[in-house]
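Question (not urgent): is this output format expected?
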Amino acid sequence: MAYNCIFVIGPTAVGKTQIGVRLAASFGGEVLSADSRQVYRGLDIGSGKDLCDFKLDEKTALSLNPALKEKISEGFYSVPYHIIDVTDLTHEYSLFDFTEDFYRAFKNCQSRGVLPVVVGGTGMYLDSILRNYDMIPYDENTEAARAEKKQLESLSYEELKSVLIKEKEKLHNTTEFGDRERLIKAILLNRFSKSEEYRLLREKTLANRPKLEPFVIGTTLPRPLVRQRIADRLRLRLEEGLIEEVENLHKNGASWQRLESLGLEYRFVSQYLQNKIESKEKLFELLNLAIGQFAKRQETWFKGMEKKGVKINWLPQQMSVEQRFKAACELLSN
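Got this back:
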């Protein structure tokens, strides 16, 4: 094959997981998740883990790959997956964590001759791998780093902004101006990226990374259909216990602030449980709108990736999961 991994990407609620699982089963591969919330244990309904999609009945599994017969258990074949349920809410999982977990899982698959099938819609996670972000670790606990941070903490907010603007050639993200802590971190990271230590670590990190030869498959649907699927799925998740899931996470120690930081379902349901949203009907209305807007932002991100050189092979729209899976197989065989 001209590729050593497959990516299945697209906006929320279009059937990425089902397509990716079928592709993994067909090739005897394993799924690597690229979802920023599915990494957390306990975030099940709201993050859309849908682990039942990884379990194929015997007839379906064997139709995809007869060689799976020896791996059938109690009438089912479970497609192995990685980077799901890897941490809990006491840890704020970062892009750096994801790249570390991704390359570890990728190497694990490679060592066993297994094809990785990456499935997800978190644009930054996908972009970090497909465009090979540096992601060099910065140790804030060294004596020099602590001293530098202490000096910056003596500056005012406006002074910190001036330092960052002066020292950083290009500000690609104005959220770096969010607050003093974020500004200080941005300055420290920018200075670190220009150091000799960074250069040596970068050379070592990139040299140890496995070589990716990805085949990227994109899938989406007409926007009205995406909106309808989002609404239908949200109703189902509320029926399945989304509100109760968030309530239990809070009872088990997660603060409202932490839950709201997770965005979308967790943010809006947390607000509802704090009586900031007056009714379940209003919760559905606001959350449904927010998820629809998120799906549009995902599509915009993928278009941006294409402009930056990432080749995405888009599947035909207005097709069932099974039809799109077959179209994906045709693309991969060409």
